[in-house]
Amino acid sequence: MKVHLIAAGKFHDIDYARLELLKLLAETPRIRTSVASDYADLASLEAANLLITYTCDLVPTRDEEVAALEGFLTRGGRWLALHGTNAILRFGADGVVDTPDEVPAFTGLLGTRFAGHPPIAPFKVSVTRDDHEMTSGLRDFRVEDELYLTHRTADIEVLMHTSFTGRCDEFRDAEWDEAQVPVLYERAVGEGAILYLTLGHCRGHYDLLPVSPFWPHPQRCAWNYPVFHELLRRGIRWGLAHAH
């Protein structure tokens, strides 16, 4: 079974996340993994059964890359999208972060577009559907992480959710009152599907360059929680069990 892992982007400890994902993939001896830092390697995507992305402010730069992603899914490929895969960040002159819809074909394919998050703090994640292979036997849990707020761009099936009412002052889209914020969802595309898990923030000392030269307190957030690793393992099994 072939997995293509894209791990790259801004403001996160991508090296840490890449290593942790590769360790999880190595638990299954039949998996062979290719690794990339952008969406340009169309040959590896074409050969893969499962695509995994851990990115932030990294999107396809060519129309053919989006077309390749859609073709991969339509043919039956599976895509495990993590954390900031749907994030596009632009810093305004006033320091507030905009999240423009610059690549609507990409965010439309994913089913959501990142819009902001409040400061990192504990929040409750609730199981929305308990009859899915990703959630079966799991209970609601609390986690300290970035609570990702998103705009839906297509039909999705929410499997886990949280809620949020308040402000995200760092982001232009600041005011929120959401009873159901997707944390884990599935989206069918052709014969394939996307599984999106918004948890998994991580940051080391030097990952905010050039915005800040040094981040004093490294963050691991959901990576510190066994339930997150369980969800990742289930996501890998989901991808390989159903991919064509």
Automatic annotation (TrEMBL):
Transmembrane segments: none annotated. InterPro entries: Class_I_gatase-like, ThuA-like. Residues 24-206 form the ThuA-like domain. This is ThuA-like domain-containing protein. It holds the Pfam family ThuA. It comes from the Bacteria.
